[in-house]
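Researcher: We're teaching a course module on how sequence relates to structure. For the next exercise, students receive a sequence and then see the predicted structure as tokens, so they can try to spot secondary structure elements on their own. Here is the exercise chain.
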Amino acid sequence: MTRPILVGGWRVEVTVRPGVPRILPSTEVARVVTAALHAAGAPGQASISVVLADDEELERLNETHLGHEGPTDVLSFPLLDPGAFPPHPGRAATRGGHVASFVLPPRARLHLGDIAVSVERAIEQAREGRGGQTGDVRWSAADELRLLLTHGALHVCGWDHAEPVEGDAMRALERRLLGVVSA
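Model: And here is the predicted structure for the students to work with:
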């Protein structure tokens, strides 16, 4: 079932696959994603898709698109160049970054990309105490899902954690957006 939700000018298409537990209402999913979009400086009046799935679907996507075997918790598929977003620690401004290189039809929304989350993996990570940015946080499955949604949305907006400076900044922003106090 897909449900379009408007939050702060963004349109979030939330799809929950059949059989996937609903641990957050779709409106909360949209709110979490748009908070990350806002913090990352995403263009307004844009759209993003979120698919809440299971391990099997994420494993298939992971192998097909990244060449990695096994399930993962979240995958992001950005459609814009990272230069379309404001610079952040660990990533300087890039010349020529632009929001769209084509003209959209009237009233059409720019699509930022897609996020796929394994709700099954979020539940398991929370249950086993493998949640959070460090993999050792004990919190609810709903909190773990909020983190994965935030993480995925930041990736769509050009954030990464491959380099330590950017990774630290990304983790700090995730903690701030989720209201997590650092130990």
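Model: If you want an answer key for the exercise: The longest strand covers residues 110-118. The two ends are 39 Å apart (CA to CA).
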